[in-house]
Amino acid sequence: MSPLGVRVRELAGALASVIFPAPCRICDRPLENASRIPFCPTCIAAVAPYAGPMCQRCGRPIMSFAGTSAVRIAPADSQGVAPLLCGVCRRGLYDFDFARSSAPYTPTVARAIVLLKYEELAPLGRWFAQHLVQVARAYPKEYAADVVVPVPLHSARLRERGYNQAELIARPMARALGLPCRSYLLVRTRPRPDKLTLTLRERWRSVRGAYAIRQGAPVDNLRVLLVDDVLTTGATLDACSRALRRDGASYVAALTVARAVPRGEASYMERLAREPNA
After folding, report:
1. In whole angstroms, what is the distance from residue 125 CA to residue 165 CA?
2. Which CATH class is domain 50-64+84-274?
3. Which of 25, 47, 119, 204 is the most buried (most CB within 10 A)?
4. pTM for this predicted structure
């Protein structure tokens, strides 16, 4: 678009915001311009990647090295480099090979994901996809994949909601990366428990064996890129990866919009995103 066209579009957006005022869907501040992404600039800026130390395998943010046994320096590799691993990856409990997220699961990011999850805002799915494309391109070796697969919903939940929020992110992301998106490849065979909040143990038990490869779907020797909205405990991605491995997938990497962190850390990270010198 030409500079004149961009300027006209900005002016039209500003005029629309005056005639049809609408608040930011996250913080309720008035929007200065009409946009397909109904967030104010402040909230958009708060959806920022975590730039601090993290587990080099699963991407878990590491906020402090003091007084914790959850972080370990793994043995050095053949080049003499000792990777920083969280306790879960140190023990080799995750089945997937690599995972990253585009932002910490702060209150702002959580509200944005809720809008996608329950209001089917397709432009928001494309916006999240753009963030994930940037992450994937930052790790070309780890995200060299044959196919993109969104984490599936159980059929009952899919009928109730009418769409899968992970697929709203995965499809535009796959197009941008030049990869096929195969939403049919994985199925969830057992629904999530009705209980609203699950303990850590319940989360893992609820997804163990809950995913399978659709009958007849080719998986053997595929490098798979799993896509989901949030990585909380990693249990869902682990269960999906195990189903893929059983049918012969050679490599499984995961991308999520957000990565859960302890509540106090999430609030601090959001403040840091808004105020870099906080």
Report:
1. 8
2. alpha beta
3. 47
4. 0.82
